[in-house]
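TODO from last week: model DUF1294 domain-containing protein.
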Amino acid sequence: MCFSYLLIISLLSFFMMGLDKIRAKKVLHRIPEKLLFLLAFMGGAIGILIGMVTFHHKISKKKFVLGIPILYIMNKLVIWIVFYKYF
């Protein structure tokens, strides 16, 4: 169940990055950065990180270049603690 959640939130995060990149190119309404960070915080940091690299999106913004890897490490620590403690 935990794996399914992480997979879904990561895929959603990845697609949101792609959608935001498309909207940026077409000068349309953008996805709020707060939402992208919220998705990363909720376990989708790897999706955001892969989206940043794949779509070359948000890679010039320091808060993404530093913040998303930090959230990724935090996601991994939480997963490790949960599995170590309960499994």
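Done. The chain has a mean pLDDT of 95.
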